[in-house]
Design goal:
Layout lengths: L8 E4 L5 H12 L3 E6 L2 H14 L5 E5 L5 H9 L6 E4 L14 H29 L2 E6 L12 H17 L3 H4 L3 E8 L5 H14 L3 H10 L9 H11 L11 E4 L9
Parallel strand pairs: 1-2, 1-4, 2-3, 4-5, 5-6, 6-7
Helix pairs in contact: 1-2, 1-9, 4-5, 7-8
Length: about 260
């Protein structure tokens, strides 16, 4: 299927690894020009070079730095001649016991996983509406749908973003001008972050990493971890010309792990 977005410009945050990288790759294969951001400049430059090989006709601009800072956001937003697609993405805060978290811990989590996406959305959606096309996808977490006890910082910050999106996505000035804002909620995908979490869990339980992974997969009806490429493909569809009637939604990709009806 031709997604109808060739020649568009996208900003993809946390694009050098994992689900952000897979999303950027799916857009590149559709002929979308990219501004990619991540903190590690070397990894980002390598990722940008690889993305250019997927479609030699596109432009790929690397903007390294911490997207939670205003100056990096301004640089990233200014790198493209216009912004048609925004992929908000950030690594989740560390797990722990809420009794140990300080106000500063909460401020960092909320800044990364709620305020920064909101600031980026605010900076681009009105211009998108004026041009009659815009797609915003916020990569959040399945924990928004089914909170994970040890991930309270993430549960709280991402739920705040979810509530905010539910309100603004339905504004007539946005939805009525072909600007959609949706949240994509990944479950367990085979990324470096998941492998790190499995190693940490294995160390605490005394099991091998392999056994820990098998135990986790056994709880997923699909019987496996997700492939980042299938996540990227779905993200690209949400950004497509065909997805203009879908907005304000929380789309769960978790292999059936969530047991609820809604």
């Amino acid at each position: 299927m031709d997604l109808g977005i060739a020649g568009r410009w996208a900003l993809v945050c946390a694009a050098s690894k994992g689900l952000g990288r897979a999303s950027a790759a799916a857009l590149a294969r559709e002929g979308v020009n990219l501004v990619v951001n991540a903190r590690d400049p070397d990894t980002l430059v390598d990722t940008a070079a690889w993305l250019r090989t997927l479609d030699t006709s596109i432009e790929v601009i690397a903007v390294p730095g911490d997207i939670t800072t205003a100056s990096v956001r301004e640089t990233a937003l200014a790198a493209a001649p216009q912004l048609d697609i925004l992929i908000n993405n950030a690594g989740g805060p560390p797990p722990g016991d809420f009794r140990d978290w300080t106000a500063q811990d909460w401020q960092r989590a909320v800044n990364a996983n709620m305020i920064t996406p909101i600031e980026l959305i605010k900076a681009c959606v009105d211009d998108m509406a004026a041009r009659g096309f815009g797609r915003v996808v916020n990569i959040t977490s399945s924990s928004v749908k089914a909170p994970i006890e040890a991930l309270g910082l993430s549960n709280g910050a991402r739920a705040g973003l979810t509530g905010f999106v539910a309100g603004i996505a339905r504004q007539a000035r946005l939805a009525g001008n072909n600007v959609t804002i949706n949240n994509l909620l990944p479950g367990s995908f085979d990324t470096g972050r998941l492998r790190g979490n499995l190693a940490s869990e294995a160390k605490g339980s005394g099991k091998s990493v392999e056994q820990t992974a098998e135990d986790r997969q056994a709880k997923i009806p699909a019987g496996r971890f997700g492939d980042p490429d299938e996540f990227g493909a779905f993200c690209a569809f949400l950004c497509s010309a065909h997805a203009g009637y879908l907005t304000g939604q929380n789309v769960l990709l978790d292999g059936g792990a969530y047991p609820g009806t809604f």
